[in-house]
Amino acid sequence: MEVQKIGIVGAGQMGNGIAHVCALAGYDIIMADMSSEALDKARALIDRNMERQVSREKITAEDKATALGRIKTTLKLPDLGQTDLVIEAATERESIKTAIFEDLIPHLQPHTLLTSNTSSISITRLASRTDRPEKFMGFHFMNPVPVMQLVELIRGIATDEETFKACLDVVDRLGKTAATAEDFPGFIVNRILMPMINEAVYTLYEGVGSVQSIDTSMRLGANHPMGPLELADFIGLDTCLAIMNVLHDGLADTKYRPCPLLTKYVEAGWLGRKSGRGFYDYRGETPVPTR
Q: Which residue is catalytic, options 116, 140, 198, 230?
């Protein structure tokens, strides 16, 4: 089947990024969220990010205007019922995702593909809570979506070939690169990335180095574009903790145990950039390490 209209559940940093790239690729978009404020914020952010692309001559002003015109927003999940593909991009909590699917399914067309942007949760288990496990798969974009080239495609045990090929065609049309991953906790990227971040937090927790020295060491010693603690703040410490818990629970190996300091920061509400404090304090003009 050919996808023409895409529904996106969630207007956060992943949802608005997915809407951005899909609209530029010529898809008609309906983005749903339970908050009108979140939808307004998402549209404003998409506008700013596209304007940045115009200023860098990556797209034209006409491209921007046309793409913005393709994006509609709604507070009602049933409005996504006439789409060909739905991408769920809500909070990384399984209970929230399954509740969304249960509310959405009665309104979908029989041919509609249902996907999740989850970065770690079992696709097979999520699919089993729907009426179309053969038309369900993982569609994991990287953050920030307009910049990052990779999309992980994850099949559940029941995902059929037609669904996989349709999602692969979407990735190709977006001008991105697909990597296929088996349905194991964390898939590929987060199976490797999150334990590294968690180990960086342990290095801080044990006093081996400060926030600044750890990030400087990995930037200059391993040629990483961003230090692991700075990256954790960018991702969101609550998301990092949620993924580490999925790895720890799903793989039953103590090497995936979340660092107690990571848990403490999340309990304090220090979630990184989005809350103003994490391993760095972002409330001033320049980020300042918090340890």
A: 140
